[in-house]
Write a structure and sequence with these properties.
Length: about 160
C-alpha cells in the first residue's frame, strides 16, 4: 500500500499504483570562460518529483469521496508524508503539484464507479532544514562579530 498522508493510493498491489516514477535533478549553471570549455558549478539540488498513477473503483472504496480528498490536498497545497510499504519513512513530505483524473465508468444516475488518477508530487523542503541553515549562517556571523570585538587590531 502507498499512502499520501492518510489517503490510500490504490488498495493493494493489483489496484495501484499502476505507475510510479521519480525524478532527481541537480542545479548546475555553466559559466562561459574566455578560452576553453564552460565551467560547470554545482549549486545544489532541485526538488524531488514523484509521479504516481492509480485507480479507484467502487469495489473497494467510494471513488468520488477519495477523489474529493485528493482534490482538496491539491488545492490546499498542504504537505503530507508519502508512506510506501516496503520502504522506510525518510521524513520527506510532498505537495500535490498536478492532478489528472479520468472517469472510466459511471452509473446511469451519473455516480462515478471507477476513476483513474495521475498525480505529481513535489518535495516540500522540511522547515527544520531551512531553520538549520539560517541558524548556521547566524552562528558564523556571530562568531565573526565576536572575533572582531576581541581583536586588538580592529579600529573602533
Amino acid at each position: 500500500m502507498i499512502y499520501f498522508g492518510d489517503i490510500a493510493l490504490g488498495n493493494d498491489h493489483l489496484t495501484g499504483p499502476t505507475q510510479d516514477s521519480w525524478k532527481f535533478k541537480k542545479t548546475t549553471p555553466k559559466h562561459a570562460v574566455t578560452r576553453g570549455k564552460p565551467v560547470p558549478q554545482n549549486v545544489g539540488e532541485e526538488l524531488d518529483v514523484r509521479n504516481l498513477a492509480f485507480f479507484y473503483d467502487e469495489n473497494f472504496c467510494d471513488p468520488e469521496v477519495v477523489y474529493a480528498r485528493l482534490l482538496a490536498a491539491y488545492k490546499s497545497r498542504s504537505p503530507a508524508a508519502l508512506f510506501i510499504d516496503a520502504q522506510p519513512f525518510t521524513g520527506t513530505q510532498y505537495v500535490v503539484d498536478a492532478l489528472d483524473a479520468k472517469v472510466i465508468a459511471k452509473t446511469k444516475a451519473g455516480r462515478i464507479t471507477r476513476i483513474e488518477v495521475k498525480i505529481t508530487l513535489e518535495e516540500e523542503p522540511r522547515l527544520g532544514a531551512s531553520f538549520g541553515l539560517i541558524g548556521a549562517v547566524l552562528g558564523v556571523a556571530s562568531a565573526i562579530v565576536g572575533r572582531a570585538t576581541s581583536n586588538p587590531n580592529v579600529r573602533r
